[in-house]
Amino acid sequence: MPELADTGRRIKELRVGAGMTQHDLAGSDMSSSYISLVERGKRIPSGRALKILAERLGVGVTEISGGAEPAESGGRVRRLDLVGRLVAARRQWEGGDAEGALREFRTLAETESAGRQDDVYTEAQLAIAEILGSLGRADEGAAVLLRMQDALAAAPYAEARLRALIALADLLESAGRVQDGLRYALAASLESDRAPGTGFHSLLVLDVLTRCAYWSGCAHWAPDADRGRPPADGVLPGPRAGIDLHRALDLWDRGEADRAAELLADTARRVTPAAGFRLWEKINGHYALLLLGRGERTAARSIVERGLVVASVAQEPDFPLWLTTAEAVCAEAAGDRARVRALGDELAALPDTGRSHEKAAALLEIAAAHERLGDRERAAGYFRYSAELFRRAQAFRHADRARERLADLLEKRN
């Protein structure tokens, strides 16, 4: 059994040699502080963690966990070079050069296409699809992931195939094709049940399945929602927080307001912007709307004001859709018609591409606010717009609800 300090030292040497930071090596399923503890010999990585770290470093598990230090070889040097280029391409992407990063990821995918397809090839292909999705080219991104599925044999590449299915479901939901996303999320759920050693990815599967099922109008298709929930005093990771958000929204839709409020309050308390600003603001915006629905205006206003300050200070590029929606409903509660109109116009002017079902749901709240203020013409226009966006996004049951609200409004007006 090798000394723990030796394992940590080897991990650090390989990471530095590949040009990776501790954050790069940690990825989305570990933390930088955990990597630091492992490298200093303060933590014993599990077998699962060692496998993930080895794949990201482009080496075998034995090179970091046991046996004699292998001699440096041309193959290992090449692997380290490819991993370094992969990290550099991701930094290029994060720096705003999406097209340049896309070219580099494509070069890396072509380099690896005839070799080991479980590391650099997989990461490059997943990055290509994600970039294409962010550029509004979801069909191209989906084609990349489908080709990746065809290229990977089921037995030796079960984990890579599962990651491709998760990415495909997420890409389609992000593009406003929720039922297409649900189909692949269900396939990922079946694959996760069959594939060995994919415990971490089961949470990602449940996240995208819960999301797609909610917007498709069949939230009950997402099972075991309480599985793997951290202790009551722990910070919620992004996927877990996303699951709880959509569970709470479903409870609210079904009239179980108290259970929805309890779950969403706990989720809002335990999630941080580190889980992703878009998710964080969505949770806080929805929680503020729920509080407004229960008459707790002061608490809701406090959440909105704090959230908008965080967005401004952090200079987040993502528009705070749900905090802005909650701000409009706060203005409606205060009787500020002009502010409600201004914020409604701002939301309506957002692009209809991407998650159009999210925009549709926000406009539904704006329509209801105008209806409560007695501005039935504007309310009717927003109800129509919301229903049409839901329809485009394949969220047909939500579209039916919007049309029902419109019909009720028109009946009252007549």
From TrEMBL:
Keyword DNA-binding: yes
Source taxon at top rank: Bacteria
InterPro entries: Cro/C1-type_HTH, Lambda_DNA-bd_dom_sf, TransReg_Diox_bact_type
Every HTH cro/C1-type domain range: 11-64
PROSITE patterns on file: HTH_CROC1 (PS50943)
One Pfam family cited in the UniProt record for this chain: HTH_3
Keywords, comma-separated and alphabetical: DNA-binding
PANTHER family: HTH-TYPE TRANSCRIPTIONAL REGULATOR, METHYLPHOSPHONATE SYNTHASE
Name of the molecule in the record: HTH cro/C1-type domain-containing protein
Organism this protein belongs to: Streptomyces albospinus
Lineage of origin: Bacteria, Bacillati, Actinomycetota, Actinomycetes, Kitasatosporales
